[in-house]
## 1
Amino acid sequence: MVYIVAGATGVVGSAISKELASENEVIIIGRDEEKLSALSKEIDVEYSTIDLDNTIEQREFSKIVPDDKEIKGLVNCIGSILIKPLHGTKIEEFEDVIKVNLFSSYYLLSSFARRMKNGSAIFFSSVAGTKGLSNHEAIAAAKAGLEGMARSAAASYAKDNLRVNVIAPGLLDSNMSQRLLATEQAREMSKSIYPIPKIGDFNDILPVVKWLLSDDSKWVTGQTIHVDGGLSTVKPR
Ligand SMILES: NC(=O)c1ccc[n+]([C@@H]2O[C@H](COP(=O)([O-])OP(=O)(O)OC[C@H]3O[C@@H](n4cnc5c(N)ncnc54)[C@H](OP(=O)(O)O)[C@@H]3O)[C@@H](O)[C@H]2O)c1
C-alpha cells in the first residue's frame, strides 16, 4: 500500500510527506530533483520528478508506482499564487496558473485513478475558489475549476470507492506567501480580514488531510472543506 504526495517539497507537501512516511510507504513527486532527493533521503522514501511543461503520457507516468502496489492515497500540494488585476495579467501568466493549479491535478488523478480502488484523493483549492476576492481572477478560475473537477471525479469513481475531496485554505505561512507576509504590517493587515484573525499554517491543514486519508472519513466524498478562519462564509459584525 502506497501514498503519493505531489508538491512534496513545498511547506504543506513536506509536512504531509513527513507525517505519512513515519508509518507508510510513500512516493514523493516534485519538480526540483535536488530538493526532492534531499527530502527523500531525510524521510527514507522514493521520489519521482514531474515537468508540467513536458508531461509524458499518463500510462507511462503511472509506472512510478509498481503495478502490484495498491495506491491508498494521492495528495496534490502543487500550487501557485498570482494576485494581479485581470487587465494586467499576461496570457502566459494566466496559462501558467491554470497549468500549476488545475492541470497538475487532472494529470495526477487521470494517471492514478484507475489504480485507487478504496483510496482517497485530496486536492488543494483556496478561499478564492469560493469567494470573489479582487485581483484573484486567474487563481479563482483555476481553483474553482479544480473544485468542479473533483466533484465530478468523486461521482465517476464512487463505484470503485475512490473518494475525491478538496481542502480550501485561507492564507498560509508557506513559500508562495512569503512576499505577501514579508512585514509585520502586512501580516497584521492579512490577519484582520479573517473572522478568526490568524495566518494559517500547515498545522491547520495536516489533521484534515489525515482525516480525509483515513477510514474515519469513509462516507465523505465530493466535498470542499474550507480551512480559512471563516473567510469564505462568515461575516462577523
Ligand atoms: N500558502 C497559501 O497561502 C495557500 C493558500 C490557499 C491555497 N494554497 C494551496 O495549498 C497548496 C500547498 O501550497 P503551500 O502553501 O505548501 O505552498 P508552497 O510551499 O509554495 O508549495 C507549493 C508547491 O508547488 C510546487 N510547484 C509550484 N509550481 C510548480 C510547477 N510548475 N511544477 C511543479 N511543482 C510546482 C512547489 O515546488 P518547489 O518546492 O519546487 O517550489 C511546491 O512544492 C497549493 O495547492 C496552494 O495553491 C496555499
Note: Strands lie at 2-6, 25-30, 46-49, 71-76, 120-124, 163-169, 224-227.
## 2
Amino acid sequence: MRKVLHTTILIFLLLPLFVVSINAQETSQRQRCHSHENLMHQIAEHPEMLEKMQNIERQTAQFAAEGRVEMRGGQMTIPVVVHIVYRTDVENISVEQIQSQIDALNRDYNKQNSDITKVPAEFSGRTADCQIRFQLASRDPQGKATSGIVRYATTKTKWGATDDIKRTNKGGYANWDPTKYLNIYVCNIGDGILGYASFPSSPAYLDGVVIDYTAFGTMGTVRAPFNKGRTCVHEVGHWMNLIHVWGDLDCGDDYVADTPQQKDANYGNVTTPQYSICSGKTTRDMTVNFMDYVNDDCMFMFTAGQKTRIQALFASARASILNSDGCMPTAPSTCDLGKPTIKDVKSTSVTVVWNEILGMKKYSIEYKLDGTNNWIVSQTSNLSFTINGLVSGATYQCRMKGDCAEGSYSEEVTFKTPTALQTKLSESRSFAIYPNPVVHDVNIMFDVTSDGLVNVQIFDSNGVLKTQVAKNLTKNTPAVSLDLTEFPSGFYLVVAEKDGERSVKKLLKVND
Ligand SMILES: [Zn+2]
C-alpha cells in the first residue's frame, strides 16, 4: 500500500522500534529478520542516512510515476561475494551449499519457483519476474581471479545483528566495494536471528546482508522451516530497498502500490487467509509475499510494484553495480599446475584429480603407456577426470597443462594398473572349497539364499584360465563340481561370479 505523502517516511523511521520488539517476542526461538532494528541502530550512529533515505525515496517515487518499469528490458546481473565466517567445521559450509543459495536467489528473483502456483487467485495477477541474476564474482576488487567465496576463521561464538561482522574494529571483516558487489556474510548470528540486511542508505562500510548459517541455502546446515533459501531472498529484498509489507508499523506503508495495507507481520506456517483492518477497511494480507515473516514454504512472490522499487534503485543509488567488472573473466592466477593425484586405480581406469587454479577455464590431461611417446590428450573444465580404456597390468605416465599461453607441463606422475584378478583378490566368504587340497573332484559350495546363475573359473598361478563352468544354483543344489584329476599339482585360483560380484579363493591341487 502506498500513501501520498513522502514525509510519512519519517514516521516509518522513528516510531517502529517498539513494534519490532513486540514482533520478536512472538517468534519464540527463531527470529526472521532484524533489518529494521539494525536500520534504527545505523541511523542513530549515522544520522546523515536520513537525508540519503529521503533522496532515494524521492527518486523511487519519480521513477514509478514516470512508468519507467522494464526500462532495461533485460536481466540485470549482480556480482556476489560470500564471506564465510566460521568457528567450527559445521559453520564452514560447503561450496555446494553456497551455490544452492545463489540458485535459490535466481529462482525467486526470476519467478522460476515452482510454488508460485500457490499464490492465491486474487494476487496472482501481481506476481513479478524481477529479472535479476546473481552470480558469484570471478574478479576481486584488486582485479584478481576469485571464486567469489572468502573464508575467515574466527573464535567468536556469535556475532549478533548490529553489523559487528563488517566492522574491523570489532573483530569483523571488511566488505568488498559495495558499488561493485553484493556482500553476503554467513556466520553464527546467535539469539535465533536468521538474518539482517543493510538498506541502500547505509554507509558503504556497513553495506551487505548477513545470514545465519542454519538458514543459508537449501542443503547442508539449513534447518526447517527456513530451508528454502528465503531468508536470503528476503534480506536481499531489503538490500534492494524493499520494506516489510506491513511497513514496520501498525498498518504501515511499504511504499509499494500493489501490496495491500497490512496491520502487522504474519508468522509461521500460514496457509489460510489472514485479514487486516486498516483505516476501517478489511483487506486480505499478502502473506505469500517474500517480504512478510512467514515460513519459507509459505512465501512465493514479489509484486510488480516491488519490482519497480528495485528497478528505481538500480537506476539511481545502486546503478554502479550494473557496470561492475566483478563477473568479468580474468586471466588465470597462475599458469603452472601442481602435480596431479591419481585415485581409484582400477585395472582399466584411473581418476586424475588436481587443485583448482582460479580463472583457469580448461585443463588438459595427457597420458601414455610407459616406453612409448604417444601422449593421449583429453580436456575438461572440471577438477577431475577419469581415464578409461587402459590396459590392465601396465605402467603409464600422466601429466597436465592449463589452458594458458605461458603454461608448462606439470610434473609427471607414474601409475600402474593392476591385473584384473588383483583387483578382486580379497578373501571370500561367499563360497567354500571342499576338499582343499584336492586330488580328483573338487566341490565349490555356495551359501545360496536365492536361486541364481554362478560362473566358476579356475586360473593357474600365472593368471591363465584353465577351465570354467556356469551353473544355475538352487538351495537343493548349492555346489559346482569339477574334475581336476588331469591338472598338474600346484596352486590355482578359483574365481566365482554371482549376482554381479566376483570373489576369489586359493585352491591347492595335489597328485597321488
Ligand atoms: Zn526483513
Note: The longest strand covers residues 76-86.
